[in-house]
Amino acid sequence: xxxxxxxxxxxxxxxxxMALVILxxxxxxxxxxxxxxxxxxxxTKEEAEGPVAQxxxxxxxxxxxxxxxxDGYVIVYLSDGxxxxxxxxxxxxxxxxxxxxxxxxxxxxxxxxxxxxxxxNYTS
Length: 124
Fold this sequence. Notes:
The protein is of the alpha+beta class. It has helices at 2-49, 97-105, 112-122; strands at 52-55, 58-61, 65-70, 73-78, 84-91, 107-109.
């Protein structure tokens, strides 16, 4: 009789332990999904607003971007022409000749949407 109760007790401890493990795993994954969603929403909001430069507490709007050649690759710079906004894997030699000349001189783009449209068109 004692053996029956001990087997039942062990089975209930095992089932309770498994339930706790499953609940922990579920809460962990739901928390990770929530964090990922929040990070994505923050990045999307930041991207939609465009980059800003801050000086002594006053935010100023970025005034465009430049596509330039650096070591044979197209690089996106902020409006100052010195600060890198984004590195690309687009080789200058893979672009049409007229576009190559524009980029050598510093092709200006007004918005982030224009930049990403360009990158979508020319990324291999």
